[in-house]
């Protein structure tokens, strides 16, 4: 995944100690070694602020394989965070005519996050 420098996702990956390399795309990086970790979008939610404005957020988790149980695919959450999304742009990625609340958020998030 290519990530924009100084974005929320970029800062969280740095905090977790991932090795980030400059991409050929200007002002973007990529994760050089993910150590078996997985970035997954876990939720898409609406939040109303104190001025009654509707804000949309994507919730993410960074999961790593569980070191204690090596013979299964169990994961442990390293970090959880939310990213505010541009409602107009993000909304254009979703087909509301076939809206399903359990729709694959990761697929939508991937299209939103990649330049």
UniProtKB/TrEMBL annotation:
Protein's name according to its UniProt entry: Uncharacterized protein
Organism from which the protein derives: Anaerobutyricum hallii
Lineage per the UniProt record: Bacteria, Bacillati, Bacillota, Clostridia, Lachnospirales
């Amino acid at each position: 995944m290519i990530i924009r420098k100084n974005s929320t996702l970029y800062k969280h990956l740095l905090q977790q100690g991932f090795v980030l390399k400059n991409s050929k795309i200007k002002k973007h990086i990529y994760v050089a070694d993910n150590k078996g970790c997985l970035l997954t979008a876990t939720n898409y939610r609406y939040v109303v602020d104190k001025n009654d404005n509707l804000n949309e957020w994507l919730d993410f988790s960074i999961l790593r394989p569980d070191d204690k149980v090596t013979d299964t695919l169990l994961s442990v959450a390293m970090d959880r965070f939310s990213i505010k999304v541009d409602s107009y742009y993000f909304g254009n990625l979703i087909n509301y005519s076939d809206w399903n609340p359990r729709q694959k958020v990761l697929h939508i998030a991937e299209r939103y996050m990649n330049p």
